[in-house]
């Protein structure tokens, strides 16, 4: 714990200037001079990089700016302001953004030559803004605004300040900002699915990870505000929500009282921080959210393998609208590497958990994140990762070569000593195991009928695209099929369709649509099958 506090975001990150202390509460927003016109009719172009949380944050930013009279555009030439929502997770993620900034710098210069009355402003938001702070402006002179993940309420003011040619930076982290009262405005209003942030920040301090430094301390948004957002989305015709957090199973709404006793961590799991006490937990949230609309699919990500209580498994099993798909990032299959990563579990504890989950929820789909080439990783240790991937049947895996990040514990304590070619080779070997196994798992589904939520049309082929309960893509031809009222009708995005699987690749199924249905009808006569057997 001591170590964590020492290494975590320091007091400095929560304070601006000499006097503006914002250890709790929102950043203090000084009044603007009366004559500053904040945003009327200024058009904003959004660029979003990184994880789903950035997408959800962009919808919060858009809501804040829209309220102040800004408009949105998807055409570069119409834009007055470019806001780039950034990611800092790996060097590769940042280099993509530097490329985009090169382009925007050129655009800004051309505009200033062409039309002096309409200068372009560039704002950098999100994790890279938080990581680099003022250095971003020093390095990239074209940048006008730098705003970290907890300072989006301040954006109208920051943008107004740039009218006088000033640059503006707010990278304060907050202990309690959850934007609970900001109703996000969706960027793609036609999409049948939406993302909802249920918590912000992370206290885990995995030694390789920059997130605790860019997003600050963990805090949860109240259950009531999340359930209300789900209800509003349901009214807008959204059929699937994904609840987002870096570690959803440590969710705590401490504003509410709970009579339940706190659960202990399962055998073999430890945590570097003291978990919060009391309040409503993730199982309570799932219960509330899944009750809003039985036809709304509920997903969530990411679930740290520690603190995975049986109540959560029970509610997932019971509720047909909670997808039986768990993102359970292992990161490595080697106990020694996991220890260096400070994940708080061993290979055996992870495998025990997988066995417990697959026993509790027959047919559950599992996905993971894996890192290869972490500091000191030997060939034998890497082979344990491959063997874990052989043992556990992952339907989806995100596989990454390790990328050293400044500030992290690994940066200070370990050496990034696995050569790039070795990382690359190990990465390819992980991909090979993953693809081969997915192909086998998916082929076993041929002949089965899946419940598919239709998302839209594949541009290239004109076929329809949807996802099954495990979030795997299913493509099929448009056609009239039996509707709920025993008529026939074409398939539209947002429909639930029973699709027979007729072909399988490692990352996509092809299917034949059978009939229109709903979650409740589809699961009325069938139980979720016992497909997955883990052999240890
Ligand atoms: N909170 C989530 C992960 C968020 S980051 C969790 O704990 O599961 C997404 C993924 O990026 C991580 O799971 C990890 O696999 C990967 N990642 C994080 N830092 C990395 C680094 N320095 N190099 C390579 N991959 C990294
Ligand atoms: Fe990073 Fe670990 Fe937190 Fe995930 S749980 S965001 S990997 S520190
Ligand atoms: Fe990237 Fe920040 Fe998400 S670093 S992965 S955008 S939390």
Outline of the structure:
With 536 residues, the protein is of the alpha/beta class.
Structure description:
This protein is an alpha/beta fold and 536 residues long. It is 32% helix and 21% strand. It is built from 16 helices and 25 strands. S-adenosyl-L-homocysteine binds at residues 89-90, 208-209, 211, 246-247, 302, 304, 329, 331, 369, 371, 400, 402-403, 405. Residues 89-90, 208-209, 211, 246-247, 302, 304, 329, 331, 369, 371, 400, 402-403, 405 line the site of S-adenosyl-L-homocysteine.
Find the structural class using helix and strand composition: alpha/beta
Largest sheet: 6 strands, parallel
Number of strands: 25
Strand content: 15-25%
Annotate the secondary structure layout.
Elements: H1 2-7, E1 15-16, E2 20-21, E3 43-48, H2 52-67, E4 71-72, E5 81-86, H3 91-114, E6 121-126, H4 127-132, H5 135-139, E7 145-147, H6 155-161, E8 168-170, E9 193-197, E10 199-200, H7 211-215, E11 219-220, H8 223-235, E12 240-244, E13 252-253, E14 280-281, H9 282-292, E15 297-301, H10 310-318, E16 325-327, H11 335-341, H12 347-360, E17 365-372, H13 379-391, E18 394-401, H14 409-413, H15 420-443, E19 449-457, E20 464-467, E21 473-476, E22 481-482, E23 488-489, E24 496-504, E25 508-517, H16 519-524
Parallel strand pairs: 3-4, 3-5, 5-6, 6-7, 7-8, 9-12, 12-15, 16-17, 17-18, 21-25
Antiparallel strand pairs: 1-2, 10-11, 13-14, 19-20, 19-24, 20-21, 22-23, 24-25
The chain binds S-adenosyl-L-homocysteine, iron/sulfur cluster and FE3-S4 cluster (F3S).
């Amino acid at each position: 714990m001591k170590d964590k506090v020492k290494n975590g975001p320091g007091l400095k990150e929560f304070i601006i200037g000499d006097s503006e202390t914002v250890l709790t509460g929102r950043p203090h927003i000084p009044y603007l001079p009366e004559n500053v016109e904040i945003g009327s009719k200024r058009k904003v172009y959004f660029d979003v990089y990184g994880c789903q949380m950035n997408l959800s944050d962009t919808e919060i930013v858009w809501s804040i700016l829209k309220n102040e009279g800004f408009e949105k555009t998807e055409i570069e030439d119409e834009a007055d302001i470019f806001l780039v929502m950034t990611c800092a997770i790996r060097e590769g993620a940042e280099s993509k953004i530097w490329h985009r900034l090169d382009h925007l710098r050129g655009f800004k210069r051309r505009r200033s030559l062409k039309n002096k009355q309409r200068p372009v402003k560039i704002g950098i938001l999100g994790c890279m803004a938080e990581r680099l702070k003022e250095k971003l402006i020093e390095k990239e002179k074209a940048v006008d605004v730098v705003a970290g993940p907890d300072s989006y309420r301040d954006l109208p003011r920051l943008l107004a300040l740039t009218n006088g040619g000033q640059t503006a930076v707010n990278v304060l982290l907050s202990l309690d900002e959850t934007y609970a009262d900001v109703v996000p405005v969706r960027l793609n209003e036609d999409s049948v699915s939406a993302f909802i942030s249920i918590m912000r920040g992370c206290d885990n301090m995995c030694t390789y990870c920059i997130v605790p430094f860019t997003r600050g301390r963990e805090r949860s948004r109240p259950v009531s505000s999340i359930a209300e957002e789900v209800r509003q989305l349901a009214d807008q015709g959204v059929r699937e929500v994904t609840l987002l957090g870096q570690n959803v199973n440590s969710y705590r709404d401490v504003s509410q009282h709970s009579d339940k006793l706190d659960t202990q961590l399962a055998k073999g799991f430890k945590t570097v921080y003291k978990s919060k006490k009391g309040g409503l937990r993730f199982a309570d949230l799932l219960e509330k959210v899944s009750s809003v609309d039985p036809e709304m699919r509920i997903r969530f990500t990411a679930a740290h393998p520690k603190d995975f209580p049986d109540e959560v498994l029970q509610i997932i099993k019971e509720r047909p609208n909670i997808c039986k798909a768990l993102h359970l990032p292992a990161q490595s299959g080697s106990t020694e590497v996991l220890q260096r990563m400070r994940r708080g579990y061993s290979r055996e504890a992870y495998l025990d958990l997988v066995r417990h989950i697959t026993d509790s929820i027959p047919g559950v789909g599992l996905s993971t994140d894996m890192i290869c080439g972490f500091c000191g990783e030997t060939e034998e240790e890497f082979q344990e990762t491959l063997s874990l991937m052989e043992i556990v049947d992952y339907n989806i895996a995100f596989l990454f070569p390790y990328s050293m990040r400044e500030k992290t514990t690994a940066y200070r304590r370990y050496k990034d000593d696995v050569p790039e070619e070795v990382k690359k080779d190990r990465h390819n070997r992980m991909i090979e195991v993953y693809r081969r196994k997915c192909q086998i798992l998916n082929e076993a589904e041929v002949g089965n009928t899946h419940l598919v939520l239709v998302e839209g049309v594949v541009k290239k082929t004109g076929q329809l695209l949807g996802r099954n309960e495990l979030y795997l893509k299913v493509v099929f031809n448009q056609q009239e099929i039996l509707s709920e009222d025993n008529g026939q009708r074409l398939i539209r995005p947002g429909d639930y369709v029973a699709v027979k699987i007729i072909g399988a690749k490692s990352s996509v199924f092809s299917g034949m649509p059978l009939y229109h249905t709903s979650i409740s009808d589809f699961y009325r006569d069938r139980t979720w099958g016992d497909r997955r057997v883990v052999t240890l």
